Amino acid sequence: MTDEDEDNEVICSAKGCRNAAAYVLVWNNPSLHTADREKTWVACDEHRGSLSEFLDRRSFLLRVDPLEP
């Protein structure tokens, strides 16, 4: 991996995680955001489930997409 690759690496949104992200979790808090507003978190393989569950329990999760290179 080159220095340029490291600078462009997207890091997982889970607290304390430094792994490369592989997924985009698209969410919206309907009590704060209009229906067309999409917020995002990114997740590595390890944290995809826990971050998705956190958002889904609150009915915020809209979808999980692969992170495009």
Account of the 3D structure:
By secondary structure, the protein is of the alpha+beta class. The chain has two helices and three strands; from the N terminus they run H-E-E-H-E. The protein has helices at residues 3-8, 48-57, and strands spanning 23-27, 39-43, 61-66. The longest helix is centred in the last third of the chain and has 10 residues, at 48-57. The radius of gyration is 13 Å and the shape is globular. The mean pLDDT is 91.
Keywords:
23% strand, 69 residues, single chain, alpha+beta
Biggest sheet statistics: 3 strands, antiparallel
Categorize the overall geometry.
Answer: globular
Cα-to-Cα separation, first versus last residue: 15 Å
What percent strand? 15-25%
The average pLDDT score comes to 91
Give the beta-strand count: 3
Low-confidence runs = none
The H/E string reads: HEEHE
Give the helix level as a range of percent: 10-25%
Radius of gyration: 13 Å
Helix tally equals 2
- What is the structural class? alpha+beta
Strand order of the largest sheet: 2-1-3
